[in-house]
From TrEMBL:
Provenance organism: Rhodospira trueperi
Protein name: O-acetylhomoserine (Thiol)-lyase
Protein family: Belongs to the trans-sulfuration enzymes family.
Keywords assigned: Lyase, Pyridoxal phosphate, Transferase
PANTHER family documented for this protein: HOMOCYSTEINE/CYSTEINE SYNTHASE, O-ACETYLHOMOSERINE SULFHYDRYLASE
Amino acid sequence: MNLETQCLHAGYQPKNGEPRNIPIVQSTTFRYETSQDMAALFDLEAAGYFYTRLQNPTSDRVAAKIAALEGGSAALLLSSGQAASFYAVFNIASCGDHVVASSAIYGGTYNLFAITMKRMGIAFTFVSPDCSKEELDAAFQPNTKAVFGETIANPALTVLDIEKFATAAHAHGVPLIVDNTFATPVNCRPFEWGADIITHSTTKYLDGHAAAVGGAIVDSGRFDWTAHGDRFAGLTTPDDSYHGVVYTERFGLEGAYITKAVVQLMRDLGATPAPMNAFLLNIGLETLPLRMKKHCDNGLRLAEYLQGHDKIAWVRYPGLLGDSQHELATKYLPDGTCGVVIFGVKGGRAAAETFMAGLKIASIATHVADAKTCVLHPASATHRQMNDEELAAAGVSPDMIRLSAGIEGADDLIADVEQALAAVPA
Ligand SMILES: *Cc1c(COP(=O)(O)O)cnc(C)c1O
């Protein structure tokens, strides 16, 4: 099935007389005939639902669709993208371990890694996404457990050289985790370039309507944890909390990583999505290819308009000819990048504020990748906790405006930007 068809049909095929839509199973619990039936579930000897904190049929069907879209072996939905980033790393790294990450990542992820997970004893080395192979190799340590980057960084819009990062990760015996939120599987499928695990903030394009916060983790099923058994002992040696189950033996390379994330991390930390939110996410997924095309068309139109405007200091859009990211975008995102454009208005922060306040269609919102156009000033919002040096490493300048093109008419969006720029003093 091609991607458009999968967006509608993967993950759930109703049988005779069953609901056509994925049903919302709004139940915390599931009934069993005997205690033995239940015990087998708790011992991971039988598959089945028993408590929605661990698994729920609505969420699982939507997760299966996302796994199909990314070409993965298994997937898991979470209550947020932040939870997805945390679980994806914490599933294979714990106190005393180390992770290499691109410095051009979402501000919330940077905070999670550099502050919160550091407090848990996990150290991160941040590398520039355009670092040389040698610089990247030098970032690894004997206790490194993973490499992390974003396909298209939020908000810097740098495009990850997935092959370069995957090659380095594999040479050091660790997986590459890629946050594919901005590209979505419509525009890039990171497993095809060597990534091993994919994360999503489904809050963004996958949902697409600003209706539900959510996250997802997808496993390619291809990383051989057993080839580096000592490094990934959590997957390859007995888990005492399940009477000694060894995940790679019981669930194979296709299932070990996601099963461990469900039965250990969901069990103990509980970042479970509401079944209703999984249902809403699925409605968004059905139209994802149509929406992505329009987001990308609008993003490019706006970028081209801004590029020619004399009140604009600079524009970055990876789909724009001549952009520093255009070459990488042509390789990894040949059909389009995303709807997000970043730029600076001449006159710095004050001019940015005047411009944003003057917009009539685009709203100021801490959101991105939504059907409705929105704008944000990252340095005073999502990246507020960073100092100037950290801002520079993340690719966020003080004058940067992040405009997320929705799916409105392109001419209306351009007219809105035009009238707001007219109010900015020359
Ligand atoms: C928004 C975002 C996140 C965090 O996701 P939430 O759903 O807001 O928790 C992670 N990564 C990227 C690239 C994002 O844009």
